[in-house]
Design goal:
heterodimer; A: mainly beta; OB fold (Dihydrolipoamide Acetyltransferase, E2P); 9 strands; about 0% helix; B: alpha/beta; Peroxisomal Thiolase, Chain A, domain 1; 9-stranded mixed beta sheet; 11 helices; 11 strands; binds zinc ion; lipid binding (chain B); EC 2.3.1.176 (chain B)
Chain lengths: ~120, ~375
């Protein structure tokens, strides 16, 4: 896979108080976004750097079992709506997708650069 | 111009045919469409609205010169799976506005040139970079749908069984074999809960349609309505599966323009790239209530012989999915059905048909584009 393209995936920050998902929040309406924006897509007010909660609710999930260039199947993925934050796409361990409406927590990024999350009650 | 009509349609052969390039496919489709429309002289065409997703720059011009179609404006559209539906929608409005009297619409895709399996996701896309290939996008639709309404595997299987049974009656189908529900569910898992026989195949093909005004020819099919939108932001505020609200908005536009509702339509060609896509499309179009799409297919309502057949052609599951060519393939089926020329898969007494094409893949929005076209009446 080409590495010449800027990586659009969200990043995390790991500090003494744990992991935070980095992104932006509108200074006008509070809209949270995980992709870099110059102004708010909703109201065009300025955005500020923001660190979002790593915890949230699984919105939908699946496991891809087909070969996709640059990715080794099987890999489970989920949309997680971070608490008071944006919805992000995460990898989850194993090949059993996390059930929608369950709680999940982002623990970091994988070697391949994807956000990784585990069931919220599990130890990271 | 008060109405635009489809004067003629044509397609190439559908299938994985890597040895056949775009120029040959385009010639097959356009020749059939021009003959079907009774266009003897290509100088009767005022413009070409073409579409391809993965085709090289100049794909349309490179092929059309071999048919002597030169000199007129040739525009190429890209709107993911809805590419050639978008070309048709725009051609209709170009005719209605009087800008052009007659427009050739063309869709062409040579997918085996680029892929051996699923489309490689776009790495500049935040979710494409994370490996969310299109089967995964639709699997997420199934996951969310199941959470909202419940989803039995037998309903997903029923879509594949029905459409492949229809496809067995379609000599143009890439996959013309019938399957059982057991075979569908036992086939290899691609992205939970979607198995291989619930996914359309990639395809090389071209499709064409000639669009013009009213000329008093009985075989011409009136375009009663067409609607096009791109997706809204689809983010943490969203509750519905991907594409659902976009399809519903576009369908609402189309029904309003046509002055009819889904209950007045005799057959539908909808975007069944994956089985769950047909279930959500039938709800978004209003054939079933939200959450009613599974019962709809299980009841036989949407099978040939049922009250409102969906995908009598066999759909993308049978025909294969040559992205930029798919929309006009759906339109061609609708035209043949409304004319009564659909052979063994003819919907008896068909007068009005509706086509829905859903294009997607871009993270963050509810679809790249969706088109709904109402034909006949
Ligand atoms: Zn804002």
């Amino acid at each position: 896979m080409s590495t010449t393209t800027g990586d659009p995936r969200p990043r995390v920050r790991t500090g003494p108080d744990g992991v935070a998902v980095l992104g932006w929040r509108c200074t006008g309406c509070g809209y949270p976004v995980a992709q870099q924006v110059l102004t708010c897509p909703l109201c065009r007010e300025p955005v500020a750097d923001s660190a979002f909660s790593p915890e949230g609710e699984v919105w939908a999930s699946t496991c891809l079992r087909v070969r996709v260039p640059g990715h080794t199947p099987p890999y489970a993925v989920a949309y997680v709506v971070l608490d008071d934050g944006p919805r992000v796409l995460v990898r989850t361990p194993g090949d059993r997708p996390l059930p929608p409406a369950s709680r999940a927590r982002v623990t970091g990024t994988s070697e391949t650069g994807d956000l990784v999350a585990v069931p919220a009650e599990e130890e990271s | 111009m008060s109405a635009a009509f489809v004067h003629g349609v044509g397609t190439s052969r559908f299938g994985r045919q890597p040895g056949v390039g775009a120029p040959a496919l385009v010639q097959q489709a356009v020749t059939e469409a021009l003959d079907d429309a009774g266009v003897g002289d290509v100088r009767e065409l005022d413009a070409v609205f073409a579409g391809t997703v993965f085709g090289a720059p100049g794909t349309a011009q490179r092929a059309l010169q071999l048919l002597g179609i030169t000199g007129v404006p040739i525009l190429t559209f890209e709107n993911a799976c809805a590419t050639s539906s978008t070309a048709l929608h725009e051609a209709r409005h170009a005719v209605l506005s009087g800008r052009f009297r007659r427009v050739l619409c063309l869709g062409v895709e040579t997918m085996t040139l680029h892929f051996s399996g699923p489309i490689t996701p776009e790495e500049t896309d935040v979710e494409g970079r994370a490996g969310l290939a299109l089967p995964g996008v639709y699997a997420m639709v199934a996951s969310r749908y199941e959470h909202l309404y419940g989803l039995e595997p037998k309903a997903l299987a029923a879509v594949s069984v029905k459409n492949r049974r229809h496809g067995a009656l379609n000599p143009r189908a890439q996959h013309g074999a019938e399957v059982t529900a057991e075979e569908v569910l036992a086939s290899r898992m691609v992205a939970d809960p979607l198995t291989l026989l619930q996914c359309c195949d990639i395809s090389d093909a071209a499709t064409a349609a000639v669009i013009g005004g009213e000329r008093g020819v009985g075989r011409d099919v009136r375009i009663a309505a067409s609607a096009l939108r791109s997706g809204e932001l689809w983010d943490h505020r969203s509750t519905q599966p991907w594409g659902y609200e976009l399809m519903a908005r576009v369908a609402g536009d189309a029904w309003q323009e046509a002055g009819i509702g889904p209950e007045d339509v005799d057959l539908f060609e909808v975007h069944d790239a994956f089985t769950i896509g047909e279930i959500t499309a039938t709800e978004a179009l209003g054939i079933a209530e939200p959450g009613g799409g599974c019962d709809l297919v299980l009841s036989g309502h949407t099978a040939l012989g049922g009250r409102q057949p969906v995908n009598p052609s066999g759909g993308l599951l049978s025909r294969g999915h040559p992205l930029g060519a798919t929309g006009l393939a759906q339109v061609a089926e609708a035209v043949w059905q409304v004319r009564g020329e659909a052979g063994a898969r003819q919907v008896e007494g068909a007068r009005v048909a509706a086509v829905e094409t859903m294009g997607g893949g871009t993270a963050g929005i509810d679809g790249n584009g969706c088109v709904v076209v109402v034909l006949g009446g």
